[in-house]
Amino acid sequence: MKKTISIITALTLSSLSAGEFQSIGHYSTSMGGVGVASAKGSMAGYFNPALLTQSKSKVEVALGVGAAVREDNIGEQLDTLKNLKLTDTLDRVANNIGGKNTQEDRDNLKEAKKILKGIGTNNGVDIMPTAYLSTQVNDYAIGVYGTGDVSATAVVDHDRLDLSVKGNDGKYYNYNPDTDQYSEISQAAYEEGSLESAISKNGTTHVDVKGLALLEVPVSYAKAFGLKQGELSVGGSLKFMRGSTFIKRTDIDSEDNADENLDDYKKDSSNVGLDLGLLFKPSKVKNLSVGLVARNINSPKFDTIDGGSLKADMQLRTGLLYDYSEKVELAMDLDLTSNETFIPKYDSQQLGMGVNYKPASWVSLRAGLMQNLANSNEGLIYSAGFGIGVQALSLDVAAQMASKSGSYDGEDIPKFAKVNVALVSRW
Predict the structure, then answer these.
(1) Alpha-carbon gap, residue 402 to 411, rounded angstroms
(2) CATH architecture of 2-74+127-155+207-426
C-alpha cells in the first residue's frame, strides 16, 4: 500500500495530467467551471478562441498553477487495508500452521476480506494538477497549458477471497479466523480461490495506475463579423501537444521499496490538436453572449508503454454570459458531451454557473456552483475566489469543494476539491 501511494505521489510531482474538460484558471475555478462565453483575454486560447475578439485589454498575460483531487468509493477502504497490513498478516498465518494466531491478526483478516468483498468496479482516486502561461495580444493568443488526469483504481478478484495460505511444508491450507483452525486443501483449490494467490501469484487483485499528461501549446486567432442578427466571432486554435502516458499495475497491499524507475511505465509521444469556437452576441438581447467550442476535434492519440494508446476525445461545450451591469456579470457553461475519465464507469458532464462582482477597479469577488450531470458521487460543488491588485499586476485565488465527503486516514475529506493561484497582468 505504501508503494501504491508513493507511485501516485511521484506521478503527481513529476508530471501534469489530463482527461476531462477541466476548469483551469482563476476565473473558471471560482465561478463553477464556466469559461466558454466568459473567459475573455489570455485564457480564451484554452476555453474558446472566439473570445479573443472580446478582450478589454490589448495585452493580457496570466501565470497560474492549480491542483484537483477526486475520490470515488475507495479512499477509506485503501486506508483501512493499509492499516490492517493484509500481506504481512497472511504471511504470519502461513508461517504459524499448527500454532495459535493472535486475536488481532484473526480480526484483521476478517475485516480485510469484508472490505475487499465490498469494493466494486467503479472506484478510484483521481489527481489532476494544472499549470499554464497564457498570453493574448489583440485577437491573437499563444499559451502553454499543462492539464490532465492520473488515477489509481483498485481491482479485486471477487472469486479469489478465500483465506487460504501456502505453508512452510509446501502444503496448502484453508484458514478459518473464527476458530483459528487450518484444514488442508489441494493446490488447485488454493490457486482457484485464495486471496493470497490473487495478490502475490495471479495478480488478479491489484491497483491500476493510469494517466495522460498533456502539454498543449496552442496558437489562436479570432475574427468578428457583423451580421443583421448580431455579432458573430469565429476562432480557432492549432495546438502542438506533447503527451506522457502512464500504465502501471502494482500490488494492492505492497510494502516494497517505492523508489523504482517510473520511466519504465511512461511513454512520451507528440501530436497536433485542433480547437474551434464560436461566439454570438444577438442584437435583440443586449449584453448577452452565447459561446460554443469543440476541443480536440481530431481526437489526438498518444502512445502507451504496452503498445496501445490513450486518446484525448473531442469535447463539446456551450456557455452563456450576461453582463448585468458594469460591476456584475453572470455566466453558465454546459458540457454537451459526456467525457470519460480514467476512473472506471465515472463520466464527467458538468453544468456550472457563477457570478463575478467588481465593487471597485482593484478587486473582484466571484462565486459559483457546479454539478456533474453524469455522476452524483460528488454532489453539488461550491466555488469561490477573489482577485486583488492593479491592472498591471493582480493576484487571483480560487477554490472548489464538493458538498459530499468521504474519509481518509480518519479524517473527513471532500469527494472533490480544487485550488488555483494566478498572477495576471493587463495593459
Answers:
(1) 15
(2) Beta Barrel (2.40)
Per-domain residue ranges of the chain: 2-74+127-155+207-426, 83-118+157-204
| Distance separating alpha carbons of residues 212 and 151, to the nearest angstrom | 9
Taking Cα atoms as reference points, which of 185, 187, 183 lies closest to residue 98?
183
Place of cell 475573455: 40
Q: Of the candidates 22, 121, 149, 125, which has an alpha carbon nearest to the alpha carbon of residue 344?
A: 121
Pairing of strands 230-251, 301-303: unpaired
Q: What is the DSSP letter of 1?
A: -
- 236: part of which helix (H) or strand (E)? strand 230-251
DSSP string covering 174-218, please? EEETTTTEEEEE-HHHHHHHBHHHHHHTS--SEEEEEEEEEEEEE
- What is the spatial distance between Cα 196 and Cα 296, in angstroms, rounded to a whole number? 44
Helix (H, G, I), strand (E, B) or coil at 35: coil
- How far apart, in whole angstroms, are the C-alpha atoms of residue 140 and residue 158? 55
Q: pLDDT tens digits for 341-363?
A: 888 888 999 999 999 999 999 99
Task: Specify the residue for cell string 478582450.
Answer: 55
Identity at 97, one-letter amino acid code: I
Distance, in Å, from the CA atom of 252 to the CA atom of 259, rounded to the nearest integer, reads 17
- Here the cell at position 223 is 475574427
Write the pLDDT tens digit of every residue in 102-154: 999 999 999 999 999 999 888 888 899 999 999 999 999 999 999 878 888 99
Q: What is the DSSP letter of 279?
A: E
